[in-house]
Amino acid sequence: MKNGICIKTNCFNLKYTLECGQCFRWNEVEENTYIGVIKDRVLKVKQDKCNIYVTSNKMENLEQVVKYYFDLNQDYEKIENEIKNIDEHINNALKNSSGIRILNQDFFETLISYIISANNNIPRISKSVNEISRKYGTKVIFENEEYYLFPTANQLKDVSIEDYRKCGVGFRDSYIYDTVNEILAGNIDMDKINEMPTDILRQTLLKLKGVGPKVADCILLFSCQRGEVFPIDVWVERVMSVLYFNETHGKMKKKDILKYADEKFGKYSGIVQQHLFYNMRGKMI
DNA sequence: TGCCAGGCCTTCC
DNA sequence: GGAAGGCATGGC
């Protein structure tokens, strides 16, 4: 393939993966073709049956980067076959959403993005993340268009609370400001994240302003390869209450939902959660 | 107009 | 430790 690569995939649906709410910087430009900005480059990805075709402004290690980002090194066919057998609800959900992958996104970008996500909606989250990138991130050119990488903590060192507010983040402005400064102060060593046990890492994240249990779990799941976590937002609370506790008003306590998920879904809690979330939001279950 | 959005912080008990 | 209220902003 000219100026790009082709990767053969299995059990991967690009559309579901990018539209299930775990990432905020992808746009569909034509049928089954998306352009997105990840850690250090712009990607254009087209899916045609089992193959994806990828072009980028940066070809260095492209296949490795793409496989890691979309979690293509994991055997999702095996994972889906296992979770299908857990119960009929998951089996039904998978009929609508087979091929969702849990992305491996950049830690810092995910941290800030999910602080913005609190009591917010996905289009507005995307808008704010894009605005922060446009103002403070590195510009890159791809197919004669301008794109902006999400800024590093260092690129945000002189940004004020008021500046964040102008990016549309609302009351989360000071949370972002405080968290960026914590990172700049070295209070979270981003090089050691992979070695930290999940509980310790969660406790570390929870010390940051604007990071509560749900945001921490999203960061753990979408950027730290912790597939055993089960982020509970309003949708998941609702779907779990209805499907597993016979409650129609989302009244179940999070503690009880977490206990249930841990016992029943175990190390696959994260992927199960994502299928339930996607199906619930799409009103398919 | 009022309610909701991938919740969290602060205050108060 | 748990409950209640406040919080920016835009879409419906």
Helix content: 40-55%
Form type: globular
State the name of the first-level CATH class of the largest domain.
Mainly Alpha
Low-confidence stretches: none
What does the model show?
The chain folds into three domains: 5-73, TATA-Binding Protein; 107-223, Orthogonal Bundle (Endonuclease III, domain 1), CATH 1.10.340.30; 234-281, Endonuclease Iii, domain 2. 46% of the residues lie in helices and 13% in strands. The chain has 13 helices and seven strands. The strands form two sheets. It has a five-stranded antiparallel beta sheet with strand order 1-5-4-3-2. β4 (41-48) and β5 form a beta hairpin. The mean pLDDT is 96. The structure holds a DNA duplex (13 and 12 nucleotides).
